[in-house]
Amino acid sequence: MIGVIVGTHGKFSEEILRSTEMVFGQLDNVAGVTFEPGESVSGLVEKYKAALASLDWTDGVIFLVDLFGGSPYNAASRIAVNHEKMDIVTGVNLPMIVDLLANRGIEQVENLVNLAIHAGHDSMMSFRAIRNSQLEEEL
Asked: Whole-number mean pLDDT of the chain?
């Protein structure tokens, strides 16, 4: 089983996982970790270790964090550097989590990381660009 840990500044991880449950249903083998004002990166590493202890990560772990270079990323990198079956994806968003969880049972960590990155990129769209494209197709 591949575990998923969402680590973010503030309560964002808890709220995005609540939103994910609205789309995906009950989340299994997923943990949210918050980084609160006044906490240290070392404290965040301990939170990640506690989350890992609660998950089945026999086949690996993917950390989904908000910002590249932020404290949630830096703490996750301290753990992932020692484990081949761990990776970190930055820019966590709802489509990324949903696609990752929907494919977690059939893919391995490396493929899921690529899928999550593409889901994040593909979910960004402009209403006006889509509308203009549709108008051009109608002409």
From this structure: 95
Rounded to whole angstroms, the Cα distance separating 4 from 55 reads 8
Domain range summary for the chain, segments of one domain joined by +: 1-136
* Confidence band of 124 (pLDDT split at 50, 70, 90): very high
Residue 139: per-residue pLDDT: 82
Q: Is residue 90's pLDDT more than 90?
A: yes
Catalytic positions, written as ranges: 9
Closest C-alpha among 124, 65, 69, 127 to residue 97: 65
Distance CA 123, CA 66 (A): 16
The correct answer on CATH 2.40.50.140 for the domain covering 1-136 is no
